Amino acid sequence: MKSLVGSAVFCAVTFATTFAYADAAGHVNWCKNNTSVPAQSEAMAAKAPDGNIRGPRSAADLYAKALAAKKAGSNGEAVNWLVLCQWHSPAAQNEILADTAGALSALN
Q1: For 31-63, how does the pLDDT look when each residue is reduced to its tens digit (9 = 90+)?
Q2: Which of the residues 41, 52, 64, 99 could staple to 24 if both were Cys, CB 3.0 to 4.6 A apart?
């Protein structure tokens, strides 16, 4: 019985967090609030918009880079930083690319 309740709670939490960031602005907010270092070496090796590898930069660090790019008038670069921030989620990347206006307006 305990495992059934535990499984139900796990499924409910997973479902809730999956859809909590279901739009471009939500994905941007996730980046803003995530300060953990990427766990996968492939993520650290991904090429960043500045031509360097991502390295151990957190999603929040990439959000800061995107914000700086937006303030400098480089919206395309800002979107690229946000896409890199969501490296682990192709669906989130697609949402950001599909709604760049929403993603950019969430950068504040």
Answers
A1: 999 999 998 899 899 999 999 999 999 999 999
A2: 99
Provide the residue ranges of all domains of the chain, joining segments of one domain with +: 22-106
Check if the beta carbon of residue 31 is closer than 8 Å to that of residue 62: yes
pTM of the model: 0.78
**Under DSSP, is residue 53 helix (H, G, I), strand (E, B) or coil?**
strand
Q: How far, in Å, CA of 36 to CA of 48, rounded?
A: 17
Q: How many residues does the chain have?
A: 108
The count of other CB atoms within 10 Å of the CB of residue 84 is 21
Residue 89, phi-psi category: left (phi > 0), alpha (psi -120 to 50), beta (remainder): beta
Q: How far apart are CA 11 and CA 30, in angstroms?
A: 20
Report DSSP state, residue 23. Answer: S
